[in-house]
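Researcher: Good morning. I'm working through a list of sequences from a screen, and I'd like to move beyond sequence-only analysis. For each chain I'm collecting a predicted structure so we can compare shapes side by side. This is the next one on the list. No need for commentary yet; just the structure.
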Amino acid sequence: PQFFNESDRTKKADFKQQIEDLIHPLTKGREVFDFEIYFSEVFHAKGGFDVVVGNPPYVRHEEIKDLKPLLKPRYECFTGTADLFTYFYERGIKLLHNGGQFAFITSNKWYRSGYGEKLRGWLAKQTRIHQLIDFGDAPVFEAIAYPTIVLLERVAKKDLHSDSSFRALTWKPGPLLADFVSVVRRDSFEIPQRSLDPTGWRLEGTAKRHLLEKLRAAGTPLGEYCKGRFYRGILTGLNDAFVVDRATRDRLITEHPSSAGVLKPFLRGRDVKKWQVNFADQYLIKIESSENKKHPWSGKLEKDAESVYAATYPAIHAFHQQFRLGLIKRADKGKYFWELRSCAYWQEFEQPKIVYQVINRTDVYALDESGLYTNDKTYILPGLGYFVLALMNCSLVTWFLHSLSGVPTGGFFNTNMPIMKQIPIPFTSKIDKIAIETLVQRILENPKAANVADVETEINERVYRLYGLTRDEIAVIQNI
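Model: Good morning. Structure tokens for this chain:
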């Protein structure tokens, strides 16, 4: 506003330079044609542009740390973990007059990510959507991962109608881009704008939308069911210093028996298989932060504390000396450099629990009843048993999670808590629950048995009945 309203040429030139200084780091030195500056008279006369078209630079939020203090007060959609291109959406819309048209090609990650929540809500109040095309992981553009084409119109709040709808398409790998127009005409479908879920935008046809709604209504979200007890595995900051194999564990105990008390069986993400974990003789040197546990050295000056640490666990202290510099330099550490970072849920690892990988196909969940600790490539759900394990490994939940994530079935995605918390745990009778738990027990007796696939099929069929699915709805899940 200061630039447009300033009549003094010298001051106006100064404002222009300030704008260009802000733009330069955002665009990594790319040549930019700033319409606001060079067409300011036209812009003011019409109250904004007729059209904004763009393909904003894809720059991850870690690379714009220095710009975040500048962006935060200027953008309603600001989120600390948002990638750079998201700010171009808000700026582009604001450059339009009411009725102005907007078209962007960007990554689709803001559709469902936590950092895109503010942007999704803002767009729903500022624009009328005309078309969304989600290419998913189809190899369409070399420079953009998971691309989308977004066509919007800026509208005044009074002109937004609850009954407006738009055309949508989720591109399936296979067709040539040369057939783009015919594919869009043939396969796109209508979606009411009001049906876009604030927790994440998913482009689904009527049948899939209704099925998702039915599943949600059939039970309690997992986040409520487990009372929010989702926990990430242990981040050591230096695995070489804290994770050892069986031979090293045995040697440390032989050198001094005190070592046995802090060497705990440890699972890596790769050790989590479907139904069961595969313990691979890895052990965590569990020295909790003094923030969580009072040790003999807690509260002492570091020099004195280390002497006490060496006397308490002499073999572990000697083992740590080879990693001393790395232990000191790591960011993830406790009150003292030989301690693990603070963790408020150590006791949860020793409970019976469901374990799954952070990067998952959404059908690989295991039960651990041995009190194993796990690494940061896993999540744990303590206190849950056979029934929930059956649900998480069944076809219906796999379909549900892939529908929410936008990742095609069979693809891997990040099983972050917001998505996992939405899994609906169905209301069920005690008889049905016991029947499913009995089937899981049969699998756990020998997960590699030849009849496991048949038992899994029976679990799927029983789960479909719990949710009251019709043949057509089952067909949607099975993609028949």
